[in-house]
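Incident log, structure service

09:12 report received: a user says their structure output differs between two submissions of the same chain.
09:20 pulled the input from the user's history:
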Amino acid sequence: MSKVKSSNLGYPRIGENREWKRVIERFWAGKLEQEDFLAQIEGIRLNHLCKQKEKGIDLIPVGDFSLYDHVLDTAMMFGLVPKRFEYSGGKVPLKTYFDIARGTKEAVASEMTKWFNTNYHYIVPELEDAVPALVDNRPLHFYREAKQKLDIEGKPVILGPVTFVKLSKGYNKDEFKTVIESFIPLYSEVLRELQEEGVQWIQIDEPILSTTLSKEEVALFHHVYARLHKAAPDIRVILQTYFEGIDHYEEVISLPVQGIGLDFVHDNGQNLTSIQMYGFPKDKVLAAGVINGRNIWRADLDKKFSLLKEIESYVSKEQLIIQPSSSLLHTPVTVKNEVGLEVILKEALSFADEKLSEVNILMKGIQNGKDSIQEEISSSQNAILLLNELSSKNRLEVNENMAKSQTLKIERKASFQERQIIQEKFFQLPLLPTTTIGSFPQTQAVKKHRLQCRKGEISNHQYDSFIKEEIHRWINIQEKIGLDVFVHGEFERTDMVEYFGEKLDGFQMTTLGWVQSYGSRCVKPPVIYGDVSYREPMTLKETLYAQSLTDKPVKGMLTGPVTILNWSFVREDIPRDEVANQIALTLQKEVEILERSGIHMIQVDEPALREGLPLKQVKWDDYLHAAVYAFKLATAFVKNETQIHTHMCYSNFEDIMDTIRALDADVISIETSRSHGELIQVFEENTYDKGIGLGVYDIHSPRVPEISEIRNHINRALKVLDSKQCWINPDCGLKTRGISETVEALKIMVEAAKQTRESLLVK
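09:34 re-ran on a clean worker, output below:
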């Protein structure tokens, strides 16, 4: 009897209790020797494999686990260490690996940016002057480990050559094919060694296929994979795509591979339509991603079963592999630890472990018939029905406010040029004013007091008193450093999205719903399950207290509607744009209260605006139009003297310059440090006349920058920007940094701004 197989594309690295994060950070802090560190990490990694085996997964991924980032892992496999890290060849040392990601006193960390349209960050490989060589066959190592220690016939996972080079930097566009050619022999050797080891299946991820590609780029895939197939003809390759449908379906299914992985969740029906129109090859397997790998809602198993039966019309059971739509890296580990949730909501959730159970149920249903899983189907449908019947999903006042918003004029009262004159007179700031992005270090004391308050070990009054002490301390520090515009430090906030999720109706926080964002940094996205509505002021108390301590302006600090949307797990029963506008209306009330209370500099951060871009360019306009509308719905009504700031980080801005202008923010702060000022090229090629906060040093690295570095960043910007436009700030919030390095770096930043300011005044 033909058997349907189940598979997984990748498993969360962090563990149920973020044990991965804790071990790594203990190692960084020098509290673990390397041998002990690697032993503990191995235990975590093997436990993850065991859990997938227990869930009945046939093709268990190996090599998807990482100590920091899988793109960085791929670069290290090929010895692609930037020259500034003084690498001498051979397998890349662990210290060098982490130095590239985090930086050192002598060397700036490699650039970091978003992984397609997710909130996961990857380290950008640097190929300039690089001579790649296979120095460590990682997939082979992890395959052997699973086989020898757990008797698991793993499925090695590797990032494909075309996607890897596409995501890298340090070469010209016309060199793309030549660069690809340099990697083909190395990938060929990886596959040959895996073939010799007896590996049955390998997963090669090429998510770049889900983006907009030229015909020449698609043709290059044929060249690359023909070479790889020739090098290792006996190994079975699943070419894996995800996050969208694929435009060049006929070309992709004709590639010389043994399997094609398609996303049937985020493709808007495109992949299924392609199969219906063109069929599917009889000599390949179809790895059907039918369980959502990026959201946390329980699957409607009846609909998923029907989808699989439709797919089965075109492929036989022995050709079919059932799996999530993408790696489960983007979801928390398990719902079972969520002890504080209401039963109806908890029953409607599905994290990584539960998604693997759903995969297994569907495999059983396709294998043995629908009746064999009817109980599970009914359970899923009942859970979804009860969730949709909650009154919180149908709030009358929210619907009325949404209707009223359609009649509002979403524009500022005056042009930026008019506002700029008014604001210069109102704030009386110096040339190149200095500020920070918002947060200051969250020390162990801050975290301890927050936890004690939540556990009831200290009163709310005691906690508020502690927060006031921290705000007071950091206002004094900012005075001594000499910053021009202050922030209160956000000591009361766990996370820039989670905090607002706790304050707004329609959101639910989880207990252990953590996901990896970058490195060891984990975030706990709120769950948006109902209509979003305003409860009470969210930031007023702390902001007003900070402002009472100084004559310098203190910024009100909010997270923007699009970022809250993109960094949350969002309900799926209404359009995402509608949810964004609900959030925007709540932020509008908060902005109004801040302004009415005398706060006239308000930062509404949108670091996730660009990351939400659809992978297909044809869909960009609709998304960007909706994003601008939501931002302006929250901010456009303020007075002319009220200065609206926003912040975006680690993004390629050249594609969305028109959108940045359309936001009509008075000041936008951007990252210019990890990319070594390359972002300034955008402003060499595009006119921009509003305020720009230059992110002049990298906060994700523990190194303290030199004055000369910061001055170089500033001077590079001043070649293409008017000095009256420019603000000086770090490239992101300082929450994760230590106190001493934060203070020292800010002193250097202020001094660099002062020196530059003086040189400009002399001229």
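09:41 both user submissions now match this output. Likely a transient worker issue. Closing.
09:42 reviewer note: The longest strand covers residues 285-291. The chain has two domains: 5-12+59-74+112-388, 396-443+482-498+540-762.
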